[in-house]
Amino acid sequence: MEGRPARYWHRLPDGRIQCDLCPRFCRLQDGQRGLCFVRARRHDGLVLTTWGRSSGFCIDPIEKKPLYHFLPGTPVLSFGTAGCNLTCKFCQNWDISKARAWDRLTNTATPETIATAALATGCRSVAFTYNDPVIFLEYAIDVAAACRARGLRTVAVSAGYITPEPRAELFRWMDVANIDLKGFSESFYRRLCAGALQPVLETLAYIHRETDCWLEVTTLLIPGENDSPAEIEALCRWFLDTLGPDVPLHFTAFHPDWKLRDRPPTPARTLIEARRIARAAGLRHVYTGNVHDPSGQSTWCHVCGALLIGREGYVLDGWNLTPDARCASCATRCAGVFETQPGGWGARRVPVRIERYVQTESNAPVSSPA
């Protein structure tokens, strides 16, 4: 079993090792792996078996993460590894996050290679996505350090299922995070994710209150499971009280997948109603996703109602922010991380052959993606 030494574990009196990274607290004999599959006991320690190994690299629009208030229109170099520390029956990246075969990990890359590739392809940031960076924390932090040294931002797309000490270390290195708030009941997390809600709420509160990391939140609405008006209202009340009115909230549409194929796709009207409820509760930036709804995917001034950023899918088709990110009509500041002009990447998704950049780590950016 290969791997790099992992952090956050301790030895139990009975000789087992307990992983302390996430609230599962997996207890392992020699040779056993945690539920995430990528953190494993080797002799008298814990290793991360996927350090430097990826399921593939792509350049995505930053809006796909989804992130709407962070460098709009710019490209982000995205990658993930294998495994996950939740077992969501509705997982829509299950072929990656549920992978148990190492032939899924077809790319190897050092942190320096990833930073080089991002610069060379014109990306403004690197995203840990497709599966959860929590489970490959050591690798994610090493990549983030290499990116920060070169002026690149880093993005965590995560379920936020992590314990306090590693949470503080991970998000200290992240510039932006989109956290999946999968539902708003312990029952939902227990039945469909084999997890718990409270640690996720604690992660959201921690990022917002204790870090400089820009935060956006996504909730996938599943018919008959977490889409009732009462649950959405409760979520929005907690959201406003804990995270305030300016943190963007994305409601996205479910489609049948993995082990939850007996539910229909989420109707657009459900997302539109959820957005109405959230805005009525006082949230200023609420979006719909995975449906055709240009109004619900655009950014509007919360004071005068003017269009600030128009979106059609992942394409920006309107920009009415001043260079200092204020409404061009009434000068109200729009919360987020913006530059004087939007990027022009559009909706393209471009695979990247990471091995092309291994030999150019000490050089300036050399090429564009092919």
Structure description:
With 370 residues, the chain is an alpha/beta fold. The chain has two domains: 4-48, no CATH class; 54-296 and 334-352, Aldolase class I (TIM Barrel). Helix content is 23%, strand content 22%. It starts with a strand and ends in an 18-residue tail after the last strand.
CATH architecture descriptor of the largest domain: Alpha-Beta Barrel
Number of strands: 20
Query: Which percent range describes the beta-strand content?
Result: 15-25%
Overall, the morphology is: globular
Q: Helicity, in percent?
A: 10-25%
CATH-level-4 superfamily name of the largest domain: Aldolase class I
Mean pLDDT: 93
How far apart the termini lie comes to: 34 Å
Q: Main beta sheet, described?
A: 9 strands, mixed
- The number of domains: 2
Radius of gyration: 20 Å
Summary?
This protein has helices at 94-97, 111-120, 137-149, 164-172, 186-193, 198-210, 229-243, 268-281, and strands at residues 4-5, 9-11, 17-19, 27-28, 39-42, 45-48, 53-54, 57-61, 75-79, 107-108, 125-128, 153-158, 176-180, 214-221, 249-253, 286-289, 299-300, 307-312, 315-319, 350-352. It is of the alpha/beta class and 370 residues long. Strands 16-15-14-13-12-11-9-8-20 form a nine-stranded mixed β-sheet. It has a three-stranded antiparallel β-sheet with strand order 1-6-5, with no helix packed on it.
